[in-house]
Amino acid sequence: MSLDELRTLIARHAARPTAVDWLMFSAQERPTAPQAGIADPVVALVAQGSKRLVLGDRVYDYGAGRYLVVPLGLPVTGHVTQASAERPMLGAGIALRPAAIASLLLETGSGRGGRGTVSGLTVSDAPGELIDAFVRLIRLLEAPADLPVLAPMIEREILWRLINGQQGDLVRQIGLADSRLTQIGHALRWIRDHYAQALRVEDLARMSGMSLSPFHRHFRALTTMTPIQYQKQIRLQEARLLLMSSTEDVSAVGFAVGYDSASQFSREYRRHFGLPPGQDALRLRAERPDTAQHFM
């Protein structure tokens, strides 16, 4: 197996709906503008071209033969950096499902550890065995009778390769109920579900099962930001979605996502996205960007 076959398969299937809901593709014929959004748990393998993901002050570049692991929902900015009509950017990814990882850890007795500090994003070189598994998984899209039986088996193989690879500790923590990553994940989900509400860091630490100091340390290690900064990013991204899809005025949108001051909302929105909310909304409605492709 090789990257050549992976490129051929991705190019063939990227424009089609996939019968496997946890398998996804990315294909771009030219570099794209940076786009902000939430990256959900995923392993993304690039077969051709290159991409960049920015989390806080950290920059992650990954090209052909490299893979990125996103362990939990993180506010990132991503874009394709190298692509052309002759050599488009081609990538494949699978959603990292905690239940699937937990089941594998339980069956193999590989769930040791999980209490250490890990970073939120990591890029590594893909071993041949991992590339081979992705190739065989995508091939199954051309064998509908085999797909429901063999696809879950290959998903387990990919997870096993990840658990025993350079990012093993990070992937392992996704499936462990008492890992630091899972504990911080409880706080992240609360913020995402209640982003418009006032936030007390002490309450987040308590729901994560940590005292305040370790909570701050692990939260920043995973997200590169404080809980207040994370909430601000979620608020701004939710505001952007509202501006793109509704006719609410800028002030109403700011209040809806938790801002008490319209001027503060406009100021922080412009600092984050580069344009005032009203102007950005007009641009978004005209372009209707498909942001999902940038975050896998």
Automatic annotation (TrEMBL):
Keyword Transcription carried by entry: yes
Keywords from the UniProt entry: DNA-binding, Transcription, Transcription regulation
Keyword Cell inner membrane set for record: no
Domain HTH araC/xylS-type, chain residue ranges per copy: 185-283
Record InterPro entries: Homeodomain-like_sf, HTH-like, HTH_AraC, HTH_AraC-typ_CS, Tscrpt_reg_HTH_AraC_N
Name of the molecule in the record: AraC family transcriptional regulator
Xref: Pfam families: AraC_N, HTH_18
SUPFAM superfamilies, sorted: Homeodomain-like, Regulatory protein AraC
